[in-house]
Specification:
By secondary structure, the chain is α+β, with helices and mostly antiparallel strands. The protein contains 10 helices and 7 strands. The strands form 2 sheets. The chain has a 5-stranded mixed sheet with strand order 4-5-6-1-7, with helices on one face. Strands 2-3 form a two-stranded antiparallel sheet. The protein is rod-shaped and about 130 Å long.
């Protein structure tokens, strides 16, 4: 017995398709990723050398240009070595690299302002902002430079007030501002990376949605095959069985009818195998398009195939056996009518499989907004009872049907009924 309420349910599904990630490739037997890493390392080394040359140019040219920063050759060489160490450490250890350039500036001038090492001081502060994770370590470094510079100005400065002001200005404009610019640069890159990561996540989610849509379509095809083809194969088996036991049929034709019935049974087995491959545990029930055939036509076609059916409409008027069944048209949504058709179709299919020759009664009534369908069959043993029934479908049809009825807030009950089902 099945109770259904006529209730429209709508679902929207948006499917987007993102690009697949490129597959790993190799060239000449060498992993391309390894070559890319080697190329990046070589590129970083080249950029480091070019950066060191650019920062070393003021060191060797300021004295020659007569800008009042005289240093001996040994001091210049030591400065170039320290500068090379700072450039090498700029990525892995940005704070020590920055402090090395600050030490060069303080060693050259108490106020930290020097044309030789000022560019390196600002550039390494920029790298500190880009590479350092925490701002606290950079602020501690700035404070340490200010303290050391203040002590040096107080001990060795000619005009401590002016030199201290120059020290603070150099520290702010030559270190703090470049450091802030580096942090802004770093945050911009992180936001861009987060945006690309979000885009990748959305693409994966869209692929998941597309996969779910394919699973829904697969479930729809499997259920449609079970409901439609399974029903037709059962009717073929019933007709072949009735022909096989006909008393006036010649033996060659009787053997052909037996072969036809066996072929229909094998086709049913193969159909259930295919359905098992298409369906997976937990497949989402896909909404099926309502069939164009009415319940009246379905019952009439089953009667013509040899099933003994009594059809009763909602007012209790019985239809004639082995004749065209009649039913008063009732209002209802297409989903409800399609589900009623599926319920009757599945019930007739199961009756043909498990109770060949039994009398079947189909009753469709209305109770307010609900549609009630009752299909019962008596004990097998009437016409065609000597013919074995086709193999069972494993209950997949009832499971799918129960899901569909539940989607309409209905209930499905299946079980023994008197001497039948």
């Amino acid at each position: 017995m099945v109770g259904l309420r006529s209730e429209a349910v709508g679902r929207d599904l948006t499917i987007g398709r993102g690009g697949e990630p490129p597959a790993a490739s190799s060239v000449g037997g060498v992993d391309q990723g390894t070559g890319n890493r080697a190329g990046r390392s070589l590129g970083r080394g080249t950029r480091g050398v070019l950066l060191w040359i650019a920062l070393a140019t003021p060191v060797v040219s300021v004295d020659r240009l007569g800008l009042n920063e005289p240093r001996s050759a040994g001091q210049q060489l030591a400065g170039l070595v320290v500068l090379a160490a700072a450039v090498t450490l700029r990525r892995a250890h940005p704070l020590p690299a920055f402090l090395l350039t600050a030490a060069l500036g303080l060693a050259t001038a108490p106020s930290l302002f020097t044309l030789a090492y000022g560019p390196a001081f600002a550039v390494l502060a920029l790298f500190l902002g880009r590479r350092a994770d925490r701002a606290r370590t950079a602020l501690i470094g700035f404070g340490g430079i200010a303290v050391v510079g203040t002590l040096k100005v107080a001990v060795r400065g000619v005009d401590p007030t002016v030199e201290w002001a120059v020290l603070m200005a150099t520290l702010v404009f030559g270190a703090v501002f470049p450091w802030l610019a580096g942090r802004y640069w770093r945050q911009g890159r992180e936001l861009a990376a987060a945006g690309w990561a979000r885009a990748d996540q959305l693409e994966r989610e869209q692929r998941i949605v597309a996969d779910r849509a394919r699973l829904r379509e697969r479930a729809r095809i499997a259920q449609d095959m079970h409901d439609s083809l399974g029903h037709e194969l059962s009717l073929i088996a019933v007709r072949a069985g009735a022909l096989q036991v006909a008393p006036d049929l010649p033996d060659p034709h009787r053997a052909a009818a037996a072969d036809l019935r066996a072929a229909a049974s094998q086709a049913t087995d193969r159909l259930h195998t295919i359905i098992g491959l298409l369906r997976e545990e937990g497949d989402e029930q896909a909404p099926l398009a309502p069939v164009g055939e009415s319940v009246e036509a379905l019952v009439a076609r089953a009667q013509q195939s040899g099933l003994r059916i009594t059809y009763v409409d909602e007012r209790g008027r019985p239809g004639a056996q082995r004749g065209p069944a009649r039913r008063e048209s009732t209002e209802g949504t297409e989903r409800t009518e399609g589900t009623v058709h599926r319920v009757v179709q599945e019930a007739l299919t199961n009756a043909a499989k498990h109770a060949p020759g039994a009398h079947v009664t189909v009753t469709v009534t209305r109770d307010g907004p609900a549609t009630k369908v009752t299909v019962t069959n008596g004990r097998s043993g009437a016409q065609g009872s000597d013919v074995p029934a086709p193999p069972s479908g494993g209950g997949s049809g009832l499971r799918a049907l129960r899901t569909r009825v539940t989607d309409l807030d209905g209930t499905l009950e299946a079980g023994p009924h008197g001497d039948g089902f």
